[in-house]
Amino acid sequence: MSRLSNLSNRFFQPSQLRENWAATLSDHVIDLAWSPDGRYIAAASVLGPVTIFAGRHGAVIHTFEGHEFGTMSIAWRPDSRALASAGQDGKIRLWDMTSGEATHSLDGGAAWVEHLAWSGGKKPILASAAGRKLKLWNAVGDLVREYLDHQSTISDLQWRPRVRQLASIAYGGVTLWDPQQSEAVRRLEWKGSSLVIAWSPDGKHIATGDQDSTVHFWIMSTGNDLQMSGYPTKVRELSWDATSRYLATGGSDEVTVWDCSGRGPAGTQPITLSGHEDFLSVVRFQHRGKLLASGGADGLVYVWQLRGRRSSLAVHEATLAAGVTSLVWSPNDQYIAVGDESGGVSVFSMS
Q1: Separation CA 233–CA 280 (nearest Å)
Q2: For each successive 10 residues of the chain (351 residues), what is the average pLDDT?
Q3: Which one of 91, 193, 253, 269 has the lowest number of neighbouring Cβ atoms within 10 Å?
Q4: Cβ atoms within 10 A of the Cβ of 183, count?
Q5: What 3-state class would DSSP assign to 10?
Q6: Residues near 176 by Cβ (< 8 Å), separated by ≥ 6?
Q7: What pLDDT sits at residue 57?
């Protein structure tokens, strides 16, 4: 049983999420991705295979062999016609949704490729991170740019919303890249090791979750930075709401939500959402709505409604058979897909 302790949840019990369908992979679900058109859900197993499910009813559309030694990341091309995957064989593969075949196998530049990210726009660019190596590819797998090695392993990357600019993180801070230029365009320095990065939807702020159990926060217009501390463990979970006001963070068995409006979160008290019985593994706001989903190592999934520090509450919940490893919202924000440590993939409806 969950231990919801928010004041509002003492009088209001969340409803059970309605499961639309469920499936089981051969092992731990390492990554989930919902196609931008909403038709498909891609699920990657830690052993390597990637399964494509129909989003509405869970029928298996394709099963890709993935990567020898294991798949690490998957990312849909913005047109939903192809999926990129990366793995511990040092390769990046582009999979065609019509034929179900790999159309390209690309050399990531190191023994394993850990991160992938597509830009938006009519001519999307795929960024890949393999060890210290950052490469950019066009939509059909041609190498666009290869940058000089980072000083340490790249731990995450993400494209800036509204601007074709890529942020990568490694020890020492954040580096910003323009695909049209051969060198970095900006550095946000910090003497520490960051694990995950998240742009605000308006592109005005950037946050990192860090090895030293802190969250770092930069204001892009000024370069000023803030640090939020007090987390009991490394912070690997970050998510911004659609308005760019709220930043949800993990690093605990509680969801911590910072109000980043005005002068930012410095000196303010965050919203704290309690209910999980073990550390969080994912927090994720809706794309356009106001709901926040969280999943933990306890196998619990909550959907929260933010109403301020005293009245925020969990409105939906579900219990999985194993710890949550991945969680994504559907493009229309009406469903969530959840993966777990035992290979389970479940899709739940908000209605």
Answers
A1: 10
A2: 50 88 97 98 97 98 96 98 98 97 96 96 96 97 96 97 96 97 96 96 97 96 93 98 98 97 84 97 98 99 87 93 99 99 98 84
A3: 269
A4: 9
A5: helix
A6: 160, 165, 166, 167, 184, 185, 186, 187, 188
A7: 96
CA 291/CA 33 separation, integer angstroms = 19
- d(C-alpha 129, C-alpha 232), whole Å: 28
Q: Closest Cα to residue 338, out of 58, 87, 7, 14?
A: 58
The gap from C-alpha 165 to its chain's centroid, in whole angstroms, comes to 18
Question: pTM higher than 0.70 for the full model?
Answer: yes
* Tokens describing residue 118: 């597509």
Element (H, E) at 133: strand 133-137
The alpha helices in 69-108, defined as continuous H runs, are none
pLDDT of residue 310: 66
Q: Classify residue 156 by burial, with Cβ atoms within 10 Å: 0-12, 13-18, 19+.
A: buried
Pairing of strands 194-199, 205-210: antiparallel
In terms of Cβ atoms closer than 10 Å to its own Cβ (0-12, 13-18, 19+), residue 107 is middle
Q: In this structure, what are the phi and psi dihedrals at residue 9, rounded to the nearest 5 degrees?
A: -75, -5
Structure tokens at 119: 């830009």
